[in-house]
Write a structure and sequence with these properties.
The chain has 433 residues and is mostly helical. The protein has 20 helices and 2 strands. Bound molecules: nitromethyldethia coenzyme A (NMX) and D-malate (MLT).
Length: 433
């Protein structure tokens, strides 16, 4: 059965569950909202619904119920490769099913048919000053393709709530297909003197991305691993939430994803992966190029904290243990680059940072998140332009947020519009005279 038909069956089966919950059990309480939560970024407020992934504070992420090792083991892989097809993961996120080889082929074919970005995207990127941040370029490229939206045409021609997910799926597929070429082009434009590499459409998404970046295997497997690991982190993280919020206005996938990428570009979110490398390079500079020892790192971590900055790559809004995405990338490093100098530095930070953060006494979670480990792998394979790292995160994150957008439309999730209060109202509620 074709992906769209599989999805249709699943959506038809799922809709009555959502309708019943909203209609018959809408008054059931999921929690209470405190003043601390209203002021403190709605941390822990339970007001979003997704079935695509779930984040347990201690266990970490599950994609459609599967832990990272389970998903990596179950999803089909290209012959001779260690990591699954990104296309297979897309199928899993959308449908909840591990695809067969034929189902993976269907996604590969759909992505190939839509892989080439329009020439005007290349032209727009070329006109931007070369020192523009790559995330600004990435978000602009996505936004300027909005005129391609099938959903926007569908809306203009007469909107139908029951089938609105279909043009959203078309938009999501067309976007997902083009993002690797756009990301690779931004890289080649900014750092390789505008020397794009033609795609090789005989390769899968991960393989073709590595090829267009101009980086040899096993970087193709790194790309597969990286995109899958970064794909989804339930719905409350800033990039997912922004995509959902923008999409809830019936904006199309182009507007919504561009918004999500703007959220990802913040240093408390996806940009932390570039900040980790920037911080480590700063330490090297201060040491006159010498490899920092654990004692040196100890000093620099404290210096960072005392100057009021955060330790990038550490802490999390939900997680309370080492991020399994960190663990997964560490496992890759232990296998492929155990003696790499930068990996040793990152490992040394891992040994001392949690104790320092505990002693510092502020961060609720002293353990590393995904960003603490991801840059070192990119660096090892020659991708040293660390301000590009968040674009890689963005290609991966698109898998999750676009899958969610398809389901948002399928289940008719409403316009997001929480209520705000004034400070005086909070004071009154708190009994402050
Ligand atoms: N270094 C220093 N202080 C920290 C850190 C850290 N890594 N993490 C949290 N804190 C501080 C935080 O700034 C806050 O201080 P204050 O009360 O002065 O405002 C206090 O600890 C309590 O924060 P938490 O409740 O533990 O964390 P919160 O949920 O507010 O924020 C992050 C979560 C991830 C934004 C925060 O841990 C952080 O800034 N980490 C460093 C940046 C980072 O790695 N971001 C990437 C997250 C993953 N991603 O890819 O998106
Ligand atoms: C993410 O992957 O989105 C980050 O870990 C942040 C989050 O989950 O809040």
């Amino acid at each position: 059965m074709a992906l769209k038909d599989v999805l249709k069956e699943k959506i038809d089966a799922h809709r009555p569950r959502t309708t019943r919950l909203a209609k018959e059990h809408g008054d059931v309480k999921l929690g209470e909202v405190t003043i601390a939560q209203a002021i403190g970024g709605a941390r822990g407020v339970r007001c979003l619904v997704t079935d695509i992934s779930y984040l347990d504070p201690n266990e970490g992420i599950r994609f459609r119920g599967m832990t990272i090792p389970e998903a990596m083991a179950a999803l089909p892989k290209p012959a001779g490769k260690d990591y699954p097809y990104v296309e297979a993961h897309w199928y899993l996120l959308l449908t909840g099913d591990v695809p067969t080889a034929a189902q993976v082929e269907e996604v590969i074919a759909a992505f190939k048919a839509n892989a080439k970005p329009p020439q005007y995207v290349i032209d727009v990127l070329r006109t931007m000053p070369r020192d523009t941040h790559p995330m600004t370029m990435f978000s602009t490229a996505i936004l300027c393709m909005q005129r391609e939206s099938k959903f926007a045409k569908f809306y203009a021609d007469g909107f139908n709530k029951m089938t609105a997910w279909e043009p959203t799926l078309d938009d999501a597929t067309e976007l997902m297909a083009k993002l690797p070429a756009i990301a690779a082009y931004i890289y080649r434009l900014k750092y390789k003197d505008d020397s794009p590499i033609e795609p090789n459409l005989d390769l899968d998404l991960g393989g073709n991305f590595a090829h267009m970046m101009g980086i040899d295997p096993p970087y193709d497997d790194v790309a597969r691993m990286y995109f899958i690991l970064h794909s989804d982190h339930e719905s409350g993280n800033a990039s997912a939430h922004t995509t959902h919020l923008v999409g809830s206005t019936l904006s199309d996938a182009y507007y919504a994803l561009s918004g999500g990428m703007n959220a990802l570009a913040g240093p408390l979110h996806g940009l932390a992966n570039q900040e980790v490398l920037r911080w480590i390079q700063g330490v090297y500079d201060k040491m006159g190029g010498k490899v920092p020892t654990k004692e040196d790192l100890h000093k620099f971590l404290w210096e960072t904290l005392k100057s009021g900055q955060v330790i990038p790559g550490y802490g999390h809004a939900v997680l309370r243990k080492t991020d399994p995405r960190y663990a997964s990338q560490r496992e890759y490093c232990l296998k492929h680059l155990p003696n790499d100098e930068l990996f040793q530095v990152v490992s040394n930070i891992y040994e001392i940072a949690p104790d320092i953060l505990r002693e510092h006494g502020k961060a609720k979670n002293p353990w590393p998140n995904v960003d603490a480990q991801s840059g070192v792998i990119q660096w090892y394979y020659g991708l040293k332009e660390y301000d590009f790292y968040t674009v890689l995160f963005g290609v991966g994150r698109a898998l999750g947020v676009l899958s969610n957008l398809v389901w948002d439309r399928a289940l008719g999730y409403a316009l997001e519009r929480p209520k705000s209060l004034t400070t005086a109202m909070l004071e009154e509620q708190a009994g402050i005279k």
